[in-house]
């Protein structure tokens, strides 16, 4: 009855390579710059959001797309490692393990897709500390619901500010998947999978503030290389 | 993972975005992200409105016929309200350009729980694929409204799949379904009297 999930390759969302090509041409600041600013901000990617393109409320542009995709990458890392850690140390029920495994695999696939699209402009994963949330099934599940609902809101909020049509198309195909995740975990918890006829959008600064308030994300450059996740499939 | 499969999906997804025709709206125009326009928005929104009319009528009929129980009855009740709200939202956006609802005949798909669950899954997956296929073609003035509905269709799909113990999220990325494929699925379902176009 239950089939194995399909994990798409990088090519699925960027079949023509148009996305990769478009980001290769964007000057979004060097990787070293980004890391340095990130360290100062204390929460990894806060600094990226205070760049002129976002702060001045300019219209969509390629460099804003790049910023958005980097933000997306960090956010997918946050999720992928959350599920990975929960499965490794949590001792969860079979039902919880089932969705955590599938959803975790999806988030890892999203990381790979975005990293590939960004190419050399990809930024490394920050270090995460989930503060024990991954050790307790109740807290883990509750956090998963919040995270999936938040990702859904983030992707909706991004749609009107994207420049690249290919990027918009790719993010639409991730949006409905993140919404499925949210509904799935909610249903498993006995919550209404979908409470309203319209999901509400959230902007990147709003999402950023929420993520910062969890203190899940740590900027520890010295240990980045040690703690860099291996996405070997 | 089979690379060939992914490439096939990719071709499908990008093909739908690049060359999908708005057949159901009765317009010969080609939906294209490169040619976003308010006029094209109307075609796309009318195309999506047809799917919302269909879903709203389907769940309303299922609720009225009262053959569902438990989780499935709750699903139909909740989702009926959502689809109705989607119809209202799209009609409001379209104004005088909104298409009229066709007549529907659901046969026993709304009176038999198993048939209902199977048909609901097909309708929700069809809606997800159609929204994914058209979302990026919309102007900035219309895309937010549609994205807020697309995710809800994704939640519906996951919910009804989970009720049947099917995997709620079978893929890491949902594939777009182009208008041709949507039209032929609608014809195969046979719920729209007089055909889909």
Written account of the structure:
The complex is a heterodimer of chains A (233) and B (197). With 233 residues, chain A is mostly helical. Helices cover 60% and strands 2% of the residues of chain A. Chain A is built from nine helices and two strands, in the order αααααβαααβα. Chain A has a two-stranded antiparallel sheet with strand order 1-2. In chain A, α4 packs antiparallel against α5, α5 packs antiparallel against α7 and α6 packs antiparallel against α7. The N terminus of chain A is likely disordered. The N terminus of chain B is likely disordered. Chain B has 197 residues and is mainly alpha-helical. Helices cover 65% and strands 0% of the residues of chain B. Chain B contains six helices and no strands. Chain B is globular. The chains are: A mainly alpha (233), B mainly alpha (197). At the A-B interface, α5, α6 and α7 of A face α1, α3, α4 and α5 of B.
Termini gap of chain A: 24 Å
Strand fraction of chain A: under 5%
Largest sheet of chain B: none
- The Cα radius of gyration of chain B reads 16 Å
Number of helices of chain B: 6
Low-confidence stretches of chain B: 1-30
**Low-pLDDT segments of chain A:** 1-11, 28-55, 221-226
- The helix fraction of chain A, in percent, is 55-70%
- Mean pLDDT across all residues of chain B, rounded? 86
Name the biggest interface: A-B, 58 and 57 residues
Question: What gap, in angstroms, lies between the N and C termini of chain B?
Answer: 38 Å
Q: Kindly provide the radius of gyration of chain A, computed on alpha-carbon positions and rounded to a whole number of angstroms.
A: 17 Å
* Percent of residues in helices of chain B: 55-70%
Oligomer: heterodimer
Principal-axis shape of chain A equals globular
The H/E string of chain A reads HHHHHEHHHEH
N-to-C SSE string of chain B, H for helix and E for strand: HHHHHH
Secondary structure tally: strands of chain B: 0
- Tell me the number of helical segments of chain A per DSSP (H or I, 4 or more residues long): 9
Whole-number average pLDDT of chain A? 78
What characterizes the major β-sheet of chain A?
Answer: 2 strands, antiparallel
